[in-house]
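stage 2 :: seqdesign
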């Protein structure tokens, strides 16, 4: 498809335009996706901070060619910046727009926290939260095994047991999500006590924290994330313990775990509707290709969309007998390719903002060839996290690892060139956790 790109001063931008190119590398800006439709004036304001000129694609977006060319010709239109009544990204209007764009409607509007910047403040450092995060993770992993054993015996879930398991997770993520993200990715590397159920619970809570869910909403996300695959207890033991590629007959059995999980919840007491929603719809996909109901688009309930993307992301970044683990950056790129196919575009965008293109605890390579470990996220620019440099550009291990903060990227011609899979260069994140 031939695309016509029109150069446009950022002072002439308008909502509905599709920005295809910038006047600088994408990696030098906070914009994760290389090409996007402008949804609101906040995005215009952000573009104006970084660019003088962009290139608008006529065949994409919502504006006519005539309108685009007229705005391009005007050149000197007044900058479209936020008025005082709009407030900033923490204000109610921004939050409302995000809610509408995600298609999560009244659910998030009712649960949204907009009283202070970022909805939840980070109240302690990664270093201080590290032992608490590790303890909360281990406690939940141990409890989950007991939950599974009990479910196999009696056929239902004791919700109080589940809530006790996830409460320390939620509390730790509220204090500092980077510490828990580090714990999860470290577990992927070592395999020590690693649980996909706990990881999906963690990612669901992190996503909910980013979106501004209240405490009860976060608890529901944690419980639902932990129980997504509880229906596996009713699959055959051979299938549950399979170590190689599944046969056709085994593959045909896999979708049954969703209905089995719903049946288990129906036999249980005091299960919240939100938890049912997550378990029932976490394998449905935006284009209708999922299972077991093959529903599509907005027919997938909001929490089903959240459950689907956190489950998929953890699966992609976890090694199993028939699929290698993707580096977190590669998984993020794959999710980006799934926009408006397997997953709603705005859900993908907000999830990637939650975890970062280079999640805490992941191994990255800089443009000069040095190797580093991501320590924590930069909420203003997900492409410039705090990084500990472990190997220099010649591959020599650093005796005293330097830490690179966001301000260190500016003017040095450095950027993160790519991410590496867990365990690359024999680096175990837990060696640096404390």
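stage 2 :: out
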């Amino acid at each position: 498809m031939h695309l016509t790109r029109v150069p446009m001063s950022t002072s002439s931008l308008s909502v509905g335009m599709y920005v295809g190119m910038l006047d600088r590398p994408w990696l030098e800006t906070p914009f994760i996706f290389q090409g996007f439709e402008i949804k609101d004036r906040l995005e215009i304001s952000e573009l104006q901070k970084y660019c003088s000129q962009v290139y608008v694609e006529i065949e994409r977006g919502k504006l006519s060619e005539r309108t685009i060319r007229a705005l391009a010709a005007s050149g000197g239109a007044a900058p479209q910046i936020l008025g005082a009544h709009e407030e900033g990204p923490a204000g109610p209007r921004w939050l409302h727009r995000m809610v509408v764009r995600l298609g999560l409607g009244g659910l998030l509007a009712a649960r949204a926290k907009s009283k202070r910047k970022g909805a939840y403040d980070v109240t302690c450092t990664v270093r201080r939260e590290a032992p608490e995060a590790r303890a909360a993770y281990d406690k939940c992993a141990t409890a989950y095994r007991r939950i599974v054993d009990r479910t196999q015996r009696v056929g239902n879930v004791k919700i109080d047991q589940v809530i006790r398991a996830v409460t320390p997770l939620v509390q730790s993520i509220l204090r500092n999500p980077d510490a828990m993200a580090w714990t999860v990715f470290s577990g992927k590397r070592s395999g020590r006590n690693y649980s996909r159920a706990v990881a999906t619970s963690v990612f669901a809570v992190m996503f909910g924290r980013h979106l501004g869910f209240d405490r009860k909403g976060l608890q529901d996300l944690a419980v639902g994330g932990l129980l997504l695959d509880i229906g596996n207890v009713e699959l055959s033991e051979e299938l549950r313990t399979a170590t190689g590629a599944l046969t056709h007959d085994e593959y045909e059995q896999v979708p049954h775990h969703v209905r089995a999980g719903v049946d288990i919840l129906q036999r249980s007491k005091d299960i919240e509707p939100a938890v049912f929603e997550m378990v029932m719809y976490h394998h449905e996909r935006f284009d209708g290709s999922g299972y077991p109901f093959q529903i599509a688009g907005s027919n997938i309930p909001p929490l089903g969309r959240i459950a689907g993307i956190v489950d998929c992301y953890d699966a992609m970044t976890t090694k199993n007998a028939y699929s290698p683990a993707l580096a977190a950056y590669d998984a993020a790129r794959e999710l980006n390719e799934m926009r408006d196919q397997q997953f709603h575009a705005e859900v993908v965008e907000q999830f990637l903002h939650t975890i970062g293109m280079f999640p805490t605890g992941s191994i990255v390579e800089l443009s000069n060839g040095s190797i580093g470990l991501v320590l924590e996220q930069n909420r203003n620019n997900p492409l410039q996290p705090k990084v500990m440099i472990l190997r220099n550009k010649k591959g020599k291990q650093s005796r005293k690892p330097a830490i690179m903060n966001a301000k260190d990227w500016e003017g040095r011609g450095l950027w993160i060139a790519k991410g590496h899979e867990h365990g690359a260069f024999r680096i175990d994140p837990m060696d640096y956790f404390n």
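stage 3 :: structure notes
- The first strand starts at residue 5 and ends at 9.
- Residues 134 and 183 are 6 Å apart (CA to CA).
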